[in-house]
Design goal:
GlycHydrolase_4_CS; 451 residues; three-stranded antiparallel sheet; binds ligand LEZUNG72; binds nicotinamide-adenine-dinucleotide; binds manganese (II) ion; Rossmann fold; 15% strand; single chain; alpha/beta
Length: 451
């Protein structure tokens, strides 16, 4: 098996240590020659990287090289795979994305609704630059992106790099949900085969099979409606916020029993309740700053101080394992099935060809070979078409620096709907994002001055 040169872009991410533990757990499936971290924030990356050095020394001694850099050429030259996990604006801007809509009585969420729009319009420019840099130094590398909001990033990358079939956008949410299905069934998550359709953070499981072809869908549905639904992946099993979110699956299944929903649908199906449950000063970004980020940084400090792992507990999570299994299937032509984002082109036959849909695909050396879904029925089609129009308008707004398109996008979004509210939120988001959207700000000020 050829050993791979892997680059992690966004090396300072709170997910990196989990990813490293997953690379160690998966070394038989995805053997590595080198790991390189790349980040624009030297200090943030250094802490994670110096702890990683100790972990790898103890647990991956056969790895030929580990390094970290802020130099693109050093990072990407000779890369076989680049995993991209960047966050433009950091958690500080995530907090703005959540709190601004909430101040107007609208869902405040990282990837859904107005927060997702703002995060998308920050991420697109950096993602395009990063992909161009990778392609400059590593024309053949696989780029696996999970930078959020993945739906909007995927649409922008589709427009920008249409002929590049070695870029794949992925989300771990379906896999994390499947970990809980596996728990219900007493099986291993990678032994389950899903049928699924939708957009990123906006989809449904229609069937769950095992590898022998047995259908477990009704067993899972019955178990959820009888006993509820809980997160089981190590990273989220004890997190009160994720426990609440998974509980909502039972509720969604009672209201809409046909298919098993992605957890993110709660924001679109019960927007008012989601707003009512929020604590204005303690939205998810604040919880992550005081929770996962603090935990990861303390863990790194401890490892660096000890230069050993004797005082820490390290866990493998589905996030890392999923990305790595995807990469392994592409690298070694395993032809395994994973839920990924691809251009529709008839997969869901009654949606536009140029939609970026999230569906199961067989992953081969030549890329994803998605399975046909066929036509979807009116309820799902209606929901998806509205969300898809919103996503496309956000990307239009980015390219055209258009206040009008952003206003249309927000008004279409199920979490907003009301045009005057959309305008108030948009104006506040623009103010908070002045440094990120200078051309949009300038154009808006020019046009409003004229009118
Ligand atoms: N698709 C999914 O299902 C999924 C799952 C988990 C995380 N994510 C995404 O992964 C990303 C990382 O999340 P996090 O909470 O760890 O964020 P984080 O802020 O802790 O980490 C992001 C890192 O990226 C770096 N960075 C920012 N801009 C960069 C650029 N242009 N080039 C290189 N590095 C850059 C930052 O300095 C930081 O170290 C986010 O986009 C998050 O939404 C996606
Ligand atoms: O609110 P956060 O920052 O804790 O999580 C936001 C992400 O949630 C989903 O992903 C993961 C989670 O990040 C990971 O730790 C895993 O173990 O469980 C979650 C559910 O799969 C979501 O898919 C991402 O897009 C979000 O960034
Ligand atoms: Mn996701």
């Amino acid at each position: 098996m050829k050993k791979q040169n892997l680059v992690v872009a966004g090396g300072g991410s709170t997910y990196t240590i989990g990813m490293i533990m997953s690379l160690i757990a998966e070394k038989e499936n995805f053997p590595l020659k080198s790991i390189t971290f790349y980040d624009t924030n030297e200090d943030r990356q250094q802490k994670v990287a110096e702890a990683t050095r100790v972990i790898l020394r103890e647990k991956y001694p056969e790895l030929e090289s580990f390094s970290y850099t802020t130099d693109k050429e050093k990072a990407f030259t000779d890369a076989d795979f680049v995993f991209v996990q960047i966050r433009t604006g950091g958690l500080a801007m995530r907090e703005q994305d959540e709190q601004i809509p909430l101040q107007h009585g609208v869902v405040g969420q990282e990837t859904c609704g107005p927060g997702g729009m703002a995060y998308g319009m920050r991420s697109i420019g950096d993602m395009i630059e990063l992909v161009k840099d990778v392609r400059h130094y590593a024309p053949e590398a696989w780029i696996l992106n999970y930078t959020n909001p993945a739906a909007i990033v995927a649409e922008a990358l589709r427009r920008e790099f249409n002929n590049d079939n070695k870029i794949l956008n992925i989300c771990d949410m379906p896999a994390a949900i499947m970990v809980s299905y596996a728990g219900i069934l007493g099986k291993e998550v990678f032994d389950l085969v899903p049928e699924y359709f939708g957009l990123n953070h906006f989809g449904w499981f229609t069937k769950i099979y095992d590898k022998e072809g047995n259908d477990h869908t009704d067993t899972i549905k019955n178990a959820i409606t009888k006993d509820g639904f809980m997160p089981e992946d190590a990273e989220i099993a004890n997190d009160p916020n994720w426990i609440k979110t998974f509980k909502q699956v039972e509720r969604m299944l009672n209201d809409f029993p046909e298919y098993l929903p992605n957890t993110y649908l709660q924001y679109y199906l019960y927007p008012q309740e989601m707003v009512d449950k929020e604590e204005a000063g303690n939205t998810r970004a604040r919880q992550v700053i005081n929770g996962r980020q603090k935990r990861v940084h303390e863990l790194c400090d401890q490892i660096i101080a000890d230069q050993s792992l004797e005082n820490v507990e390290l866990e493998v999570d589905i996030h890392g394992r999923y990305m790595i299994r995807v990469a392994a299937s592409l690298a070694y032509h395993n032809c395994d099935t994973f839920i990924v984002m691809v251009e529709n082109n008839g997969i869901i036959s009654n949606l536009p060809d140029d939609a970026m849909v999230e569906v199961p695909a067989m992953l081969t050396k030549q890329g994803p070979k998605p399975f046909s879904v066929g036509p979807i029925s009116t309820f799902y089609k209606g929901l998806i078409e509205g969300q898809l129009a919103y996503e496309k308008l956000v990307v239009d707004a980015f390219y055209e620096n258009s206040y009008e398109k952003a206003m249309q996008a927000l008004t279409l979004n199920r979490t907003v709907v009301d045009a005057p509210v959309a305008r108030q939120i948009l104006d506040d988001l623009i103010e908070a994002n002045r440094d990120y959207w200078p051309a949009l700000v300038a154009r808006k000020e020019r046009e409003f001055a004229i009118n």
